[in-house]
Specification:
The structure holds two protein chains of two kinds. Chain A is of the alpha+beta class. Helix content of chain A is 26%, strand content 21%. In chain A, strands 1, 2, 8, 9, 10, 11, 18 and 19 form an eight-stranded mixed sheet that branches. Chain B starts with a strand and ends with a strand. The chains are: A alpha+beta, B alpha/beta. Chain B: Pfam families: Pyr_redox_2. Chain B: One of its GO terms (molecular function) is oxidoreductase activity.
């Protein structure tokens, strides 16, 4: 049940990506009555469903930028809370690898920038040390810069955990609740027109990601314009996991950070992203040529990738704008906080952005009590780093053999205050069907569990045409 | 402790169990990760099974039931996943009760096969619901009574692709098209006539699937024909064929794999590079019909019986066989010089006509004209004694 429309929420957060979930969490924990509005059938339906799942140090950010600051703050907050929530942190480290003389010439600048960003543990790594650490790298690797703090996390369980903490603190999440427009009355209350009816709130926080400028136009002509940037990724089979221990970064150029090779928390090896501008802010499609090119680049860095098979491929759209930095601003007169242009670093920065939003609220709207970090919920472990249910005595039957997902884990994805809203949500909560066979062996049995909750997926044989 | 452990309760594994028991092994354990034994035929409701091994024509489920019944005497452990297959055949397994380590005298790997996914083929587009393999589609229809779509396209024209059409017919739906990149269908000819005239499905050859479209559910595909792209409206894609052995358990491990088959290398006694581990059935190479898999299961079990009796030749005495010319692969990858006649199995990479030659040290030992299709098994029997004093042989199609 939603509140009656005439009893306004304190805050309506628009967009349940990782940033929206983190903002929802912090304001809910601060004792405010918060509603999180998501247009998709589940949270993480936009940019946040498809990223590289890295927790950055911010060593390569623009020094002094808001992005740099909030990445550091976000990563530090994640490191403080992840264990209590059962969220993983693979301390892989990263190495920026120089492949030629021009790359080598850029290394001192990379070191310097790391130091300027307050990441003091970056250091040069010679070719021999690099080879000893990453024996599968191509022999052309000339050494690089070692960034020990770069890490791999589970990009889905973290924001889901933030949302659940917000709900436990009294917040409400409405899905399939796209915001079509809104007006503000004389009393300063926003009346948002959503797909599930009117929602009233005293303050709106725009975390709408790729829809950010459209939502912003409800409050004012948007000062930023979303220019979606597509990133395609290839996920290699688990047998490729051994081919890299650290995150392998290229020396970045002006436009892109380049193609990265990293482990995933689920035990695969990830190659990507591409960086492609496109006008379409909805459709994130892969294309064969780009995927082939990613694999070719991966093979150039780690030749043994040639023997590995592809588990899956995906594309994500990042909400870039005409500006390099985040576009975050409080509009006291409008009762509005804008959080726009959170590009590929949003997963890292989310909790920092939420803290920043809270500071803006305190500066411009009202003071808030300090809150204690809640205990739990402890998220189900989906990673290979920690024990999983299939390893327990008296386990339930394994439904998804590639990812070793038990019946209970799939059923659990439909339990609780924020059950899976669509198939993607089920996969993100359980990992089922995400392995090398992509459902060859488990579709039917997953559907038997999922169909009562997600009725659009299959129809009974001989049913209505 | 089990003397022999078989991984996989499909046609190869169950037939091997039957053979081992008939040969007097009292302690045979079959490990199956699914809740029931029988393998992939369980989900193929149309007729066509049992012809080669039982001289009957059954539905897949009937055949699977018969295989299971005939393996009685073996200990069948379902819901058991093998998580590691180590040197000497040491097995780590996950069972409903907990994890165990098994140390049998011999292991038979009969883990079967699966189709290559849309992702592994690097097919572009979005990722909507409605893209399934034939295996998943058949299991949904025959075992689950579930229909994921009404108007799918079928990608591929292998034998299994026509099996998908039969399944669609059983489900009361009609695919909108079959799509094949090559100039002709992969399966034997007449398949296309069968599709067109019996099932009413147009077969589009020289047509490439470029991308899959749709947001939550498939709403179309983009195909390319003669450099021209066009859209076909549909609500699903059945991605058929291009089978690959389910050999992930072996990758990164100590067993020698054959990149060309995707399975383990074996000698002519179905023995892998670890003499305690045998392999049979579709885990050896891209797909054969269940009768062939079952025959291999029986042959591997016969070799295991000899192994238990201590009468198999030492693995080191085998000599390598390599494919050449238009051959994609050949197995067994190692053969023995003095162990009787040996049959080699091979596949061509594409349809071609030519001469199949067994060559060694510059000489042709056996040759024959053949007409090869990528889906058709090529066999060649090395006569007894033909390999005397030879160190390696090559099977060539040119």
């Amino acid at each position: 049940m939603t509140l009656p429309p005439d009893v306004p929420y304190d805050i309506a957060v628009i967009g349940a990506g990782v940033v929206g979930c983190a903002v929802f969490r912090d304001f809910s924990l601060s004792g405010l009555r918060v509603v999180l509005l998501e247009r998709g059938a589940d949270i993480l339906s936009g940019a946040s469903k498809a990223n590289s799942a890295l927790l950055h140090t911010g060593f390569d950010a623009v020094p002094g930028s808001l992005e740099s600051r909030l990445m550091q703050e976000g990563a530090a907050r994640y490191r403080r809370i992840h264990q209590g929530m059962g969220l993983p942190l693979l301390p892989t480290g990263a190495v920026v690898v120089a492949w030629n003389a021009a790359d080598e010439a850029a290394l001192p600048g990379i070191l310097e920038r790391g130091h300027a960003n307050g990441v003091h543990d970056v250091r040069p790594m010679g070719a021999d040390e690099l080879r000893a650490r990453e024996p599968h790298l191509a022999p052309e690797a000339r050494g690089g810069v070692w960034v020990p703090g770069e890490s791999v996390i589970d990009a889905w369980s973290a924001p889901l955990g933030y949302a659940l903490q917000g709900i436990a603190a009294g917040g409400r999440v409405l899905r399939r609740a796209g915001v079509r427009g809104g007006t503000r009355d004389e009393a300063g209350t926003w009346r948002l027109d959503t797909e599930v009816g009117p929602v009233a709130a005293r303050l709106v926080v725009n975390c709408a990601g790729n829809q950010g400028d459209i939502v912003e136009a409800i409050a004012r002509p948007s000062p930023f314009e979303i220019r979606p940037r597509k990133g395609q990724f290839v996920v290699l089979d688990k047998t490729a996991y051994r081919l890299a221990t650290a995150i392998i970064l290229p020396v970045p150029n002006e436009r892109t950070k380049g193609v990265v090779i990293s482990r995933t928390a689920f035990g695969n090896l990830l190659v990507g992203p591409t960086a492609e501008e496109q006008p379409d802010r909805e459709r994130a499609a892969t294309d064969t040529a780009a995927l082939e090119s990613l694999l070719a680049q991966g093979r150039r860095m780690i030749p043994a990738i040639a023997q590995e098979t592809v588990t899956t491929a995906y594309a994500g759209l990042r909400p870039a704008t005409q500006f390099k930095d985040y576009q975050i601003e409080a509009l006291p007169k409008e009762g509005w906080i804008s959080i726009g242009g959170i590009r590929s670093t949003g997963l890292t920065a989310a909790l920092g952005i939420a803290a920043h939003a809270r500071r803006l609220y305190e500066a411009h709207f009202a003071t808030l009590p300090a809150f204690e970090e809640p205990e739990g919920p402890v998220m189900p472990n989906l990673t290979e780093e920690l024990p999983r249910p299939w390893q327990e005595d008296h386990r339930e039957e394994i439904i998804c053999h590639c990812e070793m997902v038990t019946r209970r884990e799939i059923a659990a994805a439909f339990d609780g205050p924020l059950p899976a809203g669509d198939l993607g949500g089920l996969k993100r909560r359980s990992r089922c069907m995400m392995g090398r066979c992509q459902g060859f062996y488990c579709f039917r049995r997953v559907m038997e569990i999922a169909a009562p909750h997600l009725p659009d997926l299959v129809s009974p044989l001989g049913g209505a045409r | 402790m089990a003397t022999t452990v078989i991984i996989g309760a499909g046609p190869a594994g169950l037939t091997a169990a039957r053979t081992l028991i008939a040969g007097g092994v009292t302690d045979v354990t079959i490990l199956e990760r699914n809740p029931e034994a029988g393998g992939l035929p369980r989900f193929c409701g149309h007729l066509g099974w049992g012809f080669f091994d039982y001289h009957r024509i059954w539905s897949g489920p009937a055949y699977a039931r018969r295989l299971v019944a005939d393996a009685r005497g073996a200990t069948l452990r379902t819901n058991v996943s093998v998580t590691s297959l180590g040197p000497g055949g040491v097995l780590e397994i996950s069972t409903p009760q907990g994890r165990e380590t098994l140390t049998p005298r011999a292991v038979l790997l009969a883990a079967g096969i699966r189709e290559t996914t849309r992702a592994a083929r690097l097919i572009g587009g979005t990722r909507p619901w409605g893209v399934v393999s034939t295996g998943a589609f058949q299991e949904m229809v025959y075992a689950g009574g579930q229909m994921p779509f009404r108007r799918p396209v079928v990608l591929g024209t292998e034998l299994v692709s026509f099996s998908a059409l039969l399944t669609a017919r059983h489900a009361g739906i009609r695919p909108v098209a079959m799509i094949e990149e090559a100039a002709r269908i992969t399966a034997r000819r007449l398949g296309d006539l069968f599709a067109r005239h019996i099932l009413g499905v147009p077969v589009l050859t020289r047509t490439k699937l470029v991308s899959i479209e749709g947001t939550s559910r498939v709403d179309g595909v983009i195909v390319e024909e003669n450099g021209m792209q066009r859209r076909i409206d549909c609500d699903g894609v059945i991605v058929t064929g291009r089978f690959a052995p389910e050999a992930a358990l072996l990758r990164g491990g100590p067993l020698a794999l054959d990149p060309a088959t995707g399975g383990p290398q074996i000698d002519s006694f179905y023995r892998t590079s670890d003499p305690a581990i045998f392999a049979a059935g579709n885990v050896l190479r891209p797909v054969e019909h269940s009768g062939q898999a079952a025959a291999e299961g029986a042959a591997a079990a016969t070799a295991m019986l000899r192994d238990l009796a201590g009468t198999l030749p030492a693995p080191a005495d085998a000599i390598p066989v390599t494919p050449a010319g238009a051959l994609r692969y050949v197995y067994p990858q190692r053969v023995f010089r003095d162990a009787g006649a040996i049959t080699l199995y091979a596949r061509a990479s594409q349809a071609c006509r030519g001469t199949l030659r067994l060559k060694a040290e510059g000489r042709t030992l056996v040759e024959r004209r053949i007409d090869a299709l990528p889906e058709r098994r090529i066999t060649l029997t090395i006569p007894e004694g033909a390999l005397k004093k030879i160190c390696r042989v090559e099977l060539e199609l040119a």
